[in-house]
Amino acid sequence: MTAVPTTSSGTSTRYDRLILPDRVHGSLYTDPAIFAEELAKIWHTTWVFVGHESEVPQPNDYVRKKLAMQDVVMTRDKDGEVHLLLNRCAHRGNQVCDDQKGNSSSFRCPYHGWTFRNTGELLGYPYNKGYGGKNKLELGMGRVPRVASYQGFVFGSFAADGPSLEEHLGAAAGEIDRLVGLSPEGSVSLTAGWLQHKTRANWKLLAENETDGYHPQFVHGSIFGVTGSPIGALYSDASTAVTRNLGGGHSENDLRPEFRGFDEPMRWFGTTPDRVPDYVARMEAAYGDDARRRLVEGAPHVMVFPNLFIAEIQVFNIQPVATGECVQYSTAVQLDGAPELNRRMVSQSIGSVGPAGMLLADDTEMYERNQRGVEALQPEWLEVSRGLVRERVDEDGFTIGAATDETGMRGFWKHYKSLMEA
Amino acid sequence: MTDPAIPDPSAGPQHDIVAGGSMRTGRFVVPGVGPVVESEFASVSVDLDHEGNSVRLRIEDLRTGRVRHLDALELEAVVWLPEGHLTQLLDPSSDRWRG
Lengths: 422, 99
Known about the structure:
The complex is a heterodimer.
Chain A: H1 14-18, E1 19-20, E2 23-25, H2 32-43, E3 48-52, E4 61-67, E5 70-76, E6 82-86, E7 101-103, E8 106-108, E9 115-117, E10 122-124, E11 146-150, E12 153-157, H3 165-169, H4 172-180, E13 188-189, E14 195-199, H5 203-209, H6 216-219, H7 221-227, E15 242-247, E16 250-254, H8 256-262, H9 277-287, H10 290-297, E17 301-304, E18 308-311, E19 314-322, E20 325-332, E21 334-335, H11 339-353, H12 360-374, E22 381-383, E23 392-393, E24 399-402, H13 407-420
Antiparallel strand pairs in A: 1-2, 2-22, 3-12, 4-5, 4-7, 5-6, 8-9, 9-10, 11-12, 13-21, 14-20, 15-16, 15-24, 16-17, 17-18, 18-19, 19-20, 23-24
Helix pairs in contact in A: 9-10
Chain B: E1 29-30, E2 34-38, E3 43-49, E4 56-61, E5 66-70, H1 72-80, H2 83-90
GO molecular function (chain A): 2 iron, 2 sulfur cluster binding; dioxygenase activity; iron ion binding; monooxygenase activity; oxidoreductase activity, acting on paired donors, with incorporation or reduction of molecular oxygen
InterPro entries (chain A): ARHD_Rieske_2Fe_2S, Rieske_2Fe-2S, Rieske_2Fe-2S_sf, Ring_hydroxy_dOase_asu_C_dom, Rng_hydr_dOase-A
Domain Rieske (chain A): 47-130
C-alpha cells in the first residue's frame, strides 16, 4: 500500500495533499481508514442509487437491495409508496427478510416472531404479556431516512437533511431523461434481472473508468473486433465525441456529435430501422418529427455519482464491500412499449456483461489489475491530467474534453474531495 | 372427539412440501390440497371443497397441517374486513401466540 503523504503545507487539508488537479494519491484506493471515512461521508450521507420502482410494481412487493454494505429491503406499501427498510429486527437484530424478492404486507422475523408492516412499523409480537400487553413498544425496522426517485430510479440517503435528489442529480437528470426518451411510453423498467459481479477492486476505480474514453480501444479491442462494432472508433483523438464534467461528480461520454455526423437512426444501437420497424414506428407515433433526432442521438453514457452508471443499453449499480472489493450489479435496460428492442437489449447485455460476456470481463480484469498495481509503493501517484491542455467550457457552462480525456475523472475527484472535507 | 381439522401437532405437515423458493411463483399445485400461496413467511394451500351441500374454500397451513374451511359468507366477510381489522389479525399475539 502506498503511504499517505504527511508533509504539511500550511493550512491545506489531508485531502488537499491527496487530490491534486492533475493526479491523485494511491492511498485513496488502499487505505482502510479512508474507506471507512468514505462510508460515513459519502455512502451514508449523499444520495445513493438503490433500485428501480419497476422492481416492485405491485402493492406489497419487495426486493432485497444493497446501500453500500447495508442490507436494504425496498418495499411498495399498499398505498403505492416506496420505502427502504434496513433488514434487521428491532428486537434482537436478526435479519428479517431472506428471500431476494416477494410480496407480503408484513414481515415476520423468524427468531421470535416479531411482525412488522412493510413500512417498517411494528405490528405485534408473540406472548405480549411479557411487555405488558399489545402496542407497548415504540420499535420498528430501521429506515433509510430519505427516499426519492427520479424517472423511477430509486435513491436513498442516510442523511435526514441535505440537498434534494434533484439538486444532487443536477445536470445528470437530463441524461436520465434522454434514456427514458427512447421509450415510446417515456419510461423504462429494470426488470430483466440483475447480474452480480464480485470485483476485487476499490469502487472508485470503477466510477472513474465508466467515462474513461481512453481505454476502450485497448481493453475492448476483442469485442469490437469480433462484433465489427463501430463504437471503438468513437474513442480516439479523431473523434468529435466529448467527455463532459456534469458537476456534482457526474460525468458523461457524449457521443452525440459523432452520431449526428452520421445522421443514421439506430446506429447507436448497431442496427438499422428496417430491422426494428415496430419500435421505430412506435417512436414516430409518440414523438412525431422529434423521433428521428432521438433515434440518431441514442442513449446516454453517464456516470451518476457515486454508483449509478447508465451505459446506453444497460444499467450498473456499484456498491462497495471493502477497500479492495465491490460488487457491480448490472441489468439490461427495458424501454417500456418497445418489446422488439428489449429482446435485443437483453441479448446484447448478455453478450457484453453476462457471465461469458466480452465487455465487463475485460473491464473487471483491468479493475483488479489496477487494484493490485496501486498496492505497489512506487510511484505513489495516479495521473488524471489527460486533456488538461485542451479542456474548454461548452455553451452550457460545462467543462468538456476530447473523447479520450480524463475530464470526467477530474470532476469526480473535485466532488469527492468536497464531500470528504465536509 | 378430535376435530379432524386440527391434526396431531407432532405429526407435522400432512403433505410433502417442495423445498426452497420454487413454490413462491404460485404455479404449483399440491395433489389433494390445491394450489399453493407461499412467501418466505408462510405457506398455505387453497382449494375448493365440494364435500358439503355447498362449496367451501379449504385452506391448509402447510407448515403445520392445520386446516380451515371458509364458506361463501365467511369469504365475503374477509373481503369486507376493514384494513385495520386485518392488520390486528396479523399481530402474532392476537390468537396463535396469545400466551
